[in-house]
Ubiquitin carboxyl-terminal hydrolase 12
Amino acid sequence: MEEEKSCHPIPPLHNANSEVTRSLREIPPAHFIFKIESFSQLSQLLSDAEVQNYESDIFEASGYKWKLSFYPNGDKKRKGEGHISLYLVITETSNLPLGWEVNVNFKLFVYDQIQDKYMTIQDANGKVRRFHGMKTEWGFAQLLPLSTFNDDDNGYLICDTCVFGAEVFVINYPGRGQSINILKELDRTYTWKIDNFSSLDGQIHYSDVFTFGNRKWNLRLYPKGDLTAKDKCLSLFLGLDDLKTFPSERKTYAKYKMRIRNQYHGEHMEIEGSNCFTSSSISWGTSSLLSLIDLHDASKGFLVHDTLIVEAEVSAISTVKNFSV
């Protein structure tokens, strides 16, 4: 159990259901405060009526209705004798669907009126409690020893007034998930044969759309260079063509090669890269793949009979699959 961060020593809690951690904080409970201005009289009234607990009014938190069940003399059935016992109870469950289940991470509080701080009590390690038709309350039978609570020097009961509280956070799992996989060794090559190359203007030219993995791609060629290599080099880029059909924030990682085939010597002009394709970076490549001088030099073998052959390979792609549970 976590050591109490208070000047008031408190014996360790031994809760039958779980380990408990406690700490102090200045911020009040986010969802509900339960103030008792006549603690001793309430305790006596319950005892006279042979009733163990008092239930607070209903409050709403995280889309559900709740109340606190307070035992000023301890919940004797659950080994809470000699302690303050406090439980969180889910209510109005008749409005919930058949077979309902609510998973909750909650904290209960006791106000230290001397230090102006709240002692926070919760299950250790952020444990989530499952509320359902057979179990509608969770809490702490041994929230605080009565000997500690009744000692004025500890600040929990001042002028017969005390304050408790609750924070309730429901863990909603939407039933949706996503898996990511890397497709490797695709062993596919796309070939783009461009005839009458000299007739192309200096603007960007696109290949047909082709598919690698589960994504659609194209090649983007600047015959006379893009803005950074204009009239100097041939520029070539690999682009994702189907970004509009995918979520704008999705990223696709790809390892690829692009080349201008040497039709004489087999010494191709090639680049390779590994990049992340997104809606803001839809293409990757190089502005200076091949100088225009070498391109148009017939002896180099890149442009033969006014035909240029461009190839692309993608050897690895990240692929995403959505699923329901």
Remarks:
- Residues 1-7, 11-17 have pLDDT under 50 and may be disordered.
- Helices lie at 39-48, 146-149, 292-296.
